[in-house]
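Technical annex, item 7. During the second reporting period the consortium partners agreed on a shared format for inverse folding records so that results from different sites could be compared directly. Each record opens with the tokenized structure and is followed by the designed sequence. A conforming record, contributed by the partner at site C, is shown below for reference.
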């Protein structure tokens, strides 16, 4: 089984990367292959709302006309058995890189061809808030809404704050061992 982690943090050693790593460690302990993609290191541009109606071929063909790393990342999602979306929380919402990626994914999933790439795919969302940590739950709601709109099968949403980081690291290690995310198990 292969799990793709889509990480919206620019810091590969920060709190968001740590929680994604905890999940990956749990999954790897059960023989699951985990690949991480750090969105800020990719060329993912924001949606252009191509035509006068604010759409483009995303609506009519289920793909995006912008030539950047978006299509390759979507191909990795399509090839994975499950996906983890991990984002730092900024102002109670998704990171800018995660938001830009999901804005375009949501639009391509409006068409059946785009939606077929992700529909029913088990997905976990992780929202990591620094500071006071109060924005984590609101971010989790935003992330779940987009993922559900795209057609993912959202398994869980886990808000994390720096004050409960150690506990959530252990929870994410355990979550990585769930049957839905492990090799040799049924969904």
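Designed sequence (site C submission):
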């Amino acid at each position: 089984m292969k799990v793709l982690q889509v990480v919206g943090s620019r810091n590969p050693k920060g709190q968001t990367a740590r929680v994604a790593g905890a999940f990956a460690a749990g999954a790897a302990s059960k023989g699951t292959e985990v690949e991480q993609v750090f969105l800020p290191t990719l060329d993912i541009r924001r949606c252009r709302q191509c035509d006068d109606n604010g759409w483009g071929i995303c609506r009519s063909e289920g793909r995006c006309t912008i030539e950047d790393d978006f299509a390759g990342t979507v191909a990795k999602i399509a090839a994975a058995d499950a996906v983890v979306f991990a984002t730092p929380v900024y102002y109670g919402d998704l990171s800018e890189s995660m938001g830009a990626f999901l804005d375009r994914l949501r639009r391509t999933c409006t068409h059946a061809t785009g939606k077929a790439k992700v529909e029913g795919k088990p997905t976990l969302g992780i929202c990591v808030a620094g500071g006071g940590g109060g924005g984590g739950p609101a971010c989790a709601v935003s992330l779940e809404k987009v993922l559900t709109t795209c057609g993912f099968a959202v398994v869980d949403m886990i808000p994390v704050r720096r004050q409960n980081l150690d506990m959530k690291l252990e929870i994410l290690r355990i979550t990585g061992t769930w049957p839905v995310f492990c090799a040799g198990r049924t969904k």
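Strands lie at 2-7, 33-38, 82-88, 122-129, 153-161. The chain has a mean pLDDT of 93. All partners now use this format for quarterly exchanges.
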